[in-house]
Amino acid sequence: MQNFQPAKVEQSFFPLGGGLDLMTPPIALAPGKVFDAQNYEPEGSGGYTRIAGYERYDGRTKPSDAGYWLLSANITGTLAVGNTITGLASGATGKILAIVGTTLVLGRVTGAFVTAEALQVAAVTQATSTSASTASGEPDPSNDADYVLLAANDYRNDILVVPGSGPIRGVAIYKDVVYAFRDNVGATAGAMWKATSGGWTQIAFNNEFTFTTGAIAPTVGQVIKGATSGATGVVIAVLLRTGTWAGTGVGSIVYLPVTGTFSSGELVKDNALAVTYLTTSSAGAAITRLPGGRVEYVNDNFTGSTDTLKMYGCDGVNKAFEFDGANYIPIRTGMATDTPLHVIVHRFYLMLSFRGSVQVSGIGAPYSWTVVLGAAEIATGDDVTGFIPQGGNASGAALGIFTKSRTFILYGTSVANFSLVPSASGIGYLRYTLQSTGNNTYGLTARGIQNLAATQNYGDFEFASISYLIQPFILAKRGLEIASTSLRGKDQYRLYFSDGTGVVMGLTGDKPNGLMPLSYGRAVRCMTTQTLSTGVEVTVFGSDDGYVYMDNIGTSFDGAAIEAWIRPAFNHTKSPQVRKRYRRAVFEIKPYGYSKVDISYDLGYANPNVSPPLAVTNNAFFGGGFWDQFTWDQFTWDAKTIADISMSLTGTEKNISFLFYSNRAQDTKHTVHGLTIAYTPQRLER
Predict the structure, then answer these.
(1) pLDDT tens digit string along 521-542?
(2) What is the DSSP string of 22-42?
(3) Across residues 272-279, what is the average pLDDT?
(4) CB 285: neighbour CB atoms within 10 A?
(5) Dihedrals φ, ψ of 492, to 5°?
(6) Is the distance from CB of 130 to CB of 75 less than 8 angstroms?
(7) What count of other Cβ atoms lies within 10 Å of the Cβ of residue 247?
(8) What would the 3-class secondary structure string for 619-667 be?
(9) Contact present, 645 and 635 (Cβ < 8 Å)
(10) Whether the predicted pLDDT of 394 surpasses 60
(11) 16: buried, middle or exposed (CB in 10 Å: 19+, 13-18, 0-12)?
(12) pLDDT-derived band of residue 423, with 50, 70 and 90 as boundaries?
């Protein structure tokens, strides 16, 4: 009697991680890496997470904060989505988001509906409640996700663009408030807007005049008067640019106009005309901003008070400015073309870039630009593209000054001993791509994404290439770079391109753990990330459509689906020439709420001679070279636990690859940590 030997089933587990790899040959590609991906991010602890969404923002209720209520009713009249109903007995109100049988899905509920009360629309009874209203009471997770999206979309419609025309010119977060810059409707001037609970509110600019022969400084809040014009105003800011308050002072006064207009060449005195302060060198006029430019800013404090944090900014078109939450203060440096492009505060100095010149203010004096008070110039020989503070020794931090062709490190503690040292020749960083992430600086160069890393020997720096494995992707985006940010809460560097795509790099400790492509569907024209006083990290960006968006929030791209996928490497389980009969795969996936994900597989580098095991759904519209080979299994999660999902496999080949795909607006993110493959080894490939 012949002994029957059952086929030996082997198992192989491999964690996912390492990011996208477009350079390594498929046979040598590490099984945790991916050869195709979109809208997944690398996790510091391993695995890939589908990214969170973004949503429009203007200060009003965020769509992701919206909730829904359920109310059972006997409908006797006519109800429609969009109706506002009122409970006759309770006085409660709500907006109908959906009608599902005898259940009303409501949003914007005020009060609480009670059982057996008349439900009216415009004072006409259309139904009677058969239950009390219940907040988020849907027991079915799929329906719950749908209703949450309905509520979010309802609030989304309230949120408006920043008034004006053209793209958003800049976004800023100052003292927990979001600000935006955009040209006016006729594109004849630039405006600054503040996000409030009622939407965008324009920042009103005050008036200013320049002066010479300043003898005595008026004080902030004081009423001043023109000796000739009789004009009066309340002093908002006194900016002494050069000279001293001994008859040689030159600068400007920002004031709130009260009566009349100050004229050029007149004496300015106190309101009683008893004390002479200065002589005007220009007529009083409203402060304006020219259209265009790209606003860059930094929040910093030049005093010992915790209440004097200010915003300092520039845009390459207008003068630099200071902003304190109410007053916009133009800063004059004395440059012939006074339109700085980059700004930083370093060692208690305000520094501004003018092409290849870095102008340095007086120490602790951002209005002062005279050598007498400590101002200076640092020449770089090429256009400055950004500033990033660097780690230092016991005497303090250094400053990275980056240009198009090379990088400099500024050492020293003051203008008396500043020393500009070239870090490396031939390596320059591109504008708006520089970020400090972890303990290092990252940015885009002509060679790809580079890392400027401080070594143990203070003052020595080395360059390391980061993006080699995705170089074809980076090269295809050359010239399209427009924005970047650092997400400290995630240890991520993100870089964005004008075609609506981007790339995210994760860190594990200080080491990059992979890069993954992003596709936002709109250009991230400008972006900022700040940590609020609550400790919450917030990222906002402006786009070409005039909206400001809050990033890393919600489940959708402003109501649209997030199309996301990863294609892990074809895995040969360390035996590339051995055929295997594949039996089962188990996926380790962590959901963060309700998610639906399609999972499928392909064999033998998508060998067209390998027949799919079941009826094939043609998914060629995805645009992938292999995707029309797939047979889909759909998995759903609704619990915040690690989910081990098992999937039967059929087919014999030398290797196998999987696809994880999702394309919905109501699903929360999920993380794919790894997978186990069960298979039976067969013969060697002949």
Answers:
(1) 999 999 999 999 999 999 999 9
(2) SSS-GGGS-TTSEEEEESEEE
(3) 97
(4) 12
(5) -130, 145
(6) no
(7) 12
(8) CHHHCCCCHHHCCCEEEEECCCCCEEEEEECCCEECCEEEEEEEEECCC
(9) yes
(10) no
(11) buried
(12) confident
φ, ψ of residue 445 in degrees (nearest 5): -120, 180
For 129-187, the pLDDT digits (tens) are 999 999 998 999 999 999 999 999 999 999 999 999 999 999 999 999 999 999 999 99
User: What is the rounded (10 degree) CA torsion for 15, 19, 22, 26?
Assistant: 0
Q: Note the pLDDT of residue 459.
A: 44
Beta-strand pair 93-100/84-87:
antiparallel
Instruction: Provide the 10 A C-beta neighbour count for residue 548.
Output: 25
Query: Residue 241 and residue 372: Cα distance in Å, rounded?
Result: 11
pTM for this predicted structure: 0.93
- Do strands 440-445 and 595-603 pair parallel, antiparallel, or not at all (unpaired)? unpaired
Q: How far is it, in rounded angstroms, from Cα 538 to Cα 541?
A: 10
CA nearest 656: which of 641, 678, 674?
Answer: 678
- 469: which DSSP letter? G
Spell out the SS3 assignment of 314-383: ECCCCCEEEECCCCEEEECCCCCCCCCCEEEEECCEEEEEECCEEEECECCECCCCCHHHCCEEEECCCC
Question: What is the distance between the alpha carbons of residues 364 and 361, in angstroms, rounded to a whole number?
Answer: 8
505: which strand partners?
493, 515
Dihedrals φ, ψ of 286, to 5°? -65, 140
Q: Which neighbouring-strand residues pair with 195?
A: 200
Torsion of CA 605, 611, 613, 618, to 10 degrees: 80
End-to-end CA distance of the chain: 32
Q: What is the spatial distance between Cα 300 and Cα 374, in angstroms, rounded to a whole number?
A: 19
Q: Are 468 and 519 in contact (CB under 8 A)?
A: no
Confidence bin at 654 (pLDDT 50/70/90): very high
User: How far is residue 445 CA from its own chain's centroid?
Assistant: 21
Q: How far is CA 83 from CA 94, 98, 123, 596, in A?
A: 8, 10, 12, 31
Taking the C-alpha atoms of residue 106 and residue 356, their distance in angstroms, rounded to an integer, is: 59
User: How buried is 408 (Cβ within 10 angstroms: 0-12 exposed, 13-18 middle, 19+ buried)?
Assistant: buried
573 strand-pairing partners: none
Helix, strand, coil percent content, the chain, rounded in steps of 5: 5, 50, 45
* Chain mean position to CA 11: 41
Q: Judge contact between 342 and 306, C-beta under 8 A.
A: no
Classify residue 644 as exposed, middle or buried by CB count within 10 Å of its CB (0-12, 13-18, 19+).
Answer: exposed
Give the number of residues written for the chain. Answer: 686
Residue 605 φ/ψ region, left for φ over 0, alpha for ψ in the -120 to 50 degree band, beta for the rest: left
E strand or H helix that includes residue 475: helix 471-476
**Within 10 A of 520 (CB to CB), how many other CB atoms are there?**
23
Contact in structure between 130 and 105 (CB atoms under 8 Å): no
Phi and psi (nearest 5°) for 498? Answer: -70, -10
Give the list of residues 6+ apart from residue 599 with CB closer than 8 angstroms, or none.
587, 632, 633, 634, 635, 645, 647, 658, 659, 660, 661
Between CA 479 and CA 477 the distance in angstroms is 6
The pair of three-digit structure tokens given for residue 531, joined into one six-digit string = 């940590």
pLDDT digits (tens, 9 = 90+) for 310-360: 999 999 999 999 999 999 999 999 999 999 999 999 999 999 999 999 999
49, two tokens: 């997470």
CB atoms within 10 A of CB 666: 21
Strand ranges across the sheet with 595-603: 34-38, 562-568, 656-664, 595-603, 633-637
Instruction: Report the C-alpha gap between 595 and 142 in whole angstroms.
Output: 9
Question: Quick one: CA dihedral 287, 292, 293, 298, positive or negative?
Answer: positive
Which residues face 398 on adjacent strands? 390
Other residues' Cβ atoms within 10 Å of the Cβ of residue 157: 10
d(CA 216, CA 238): 11
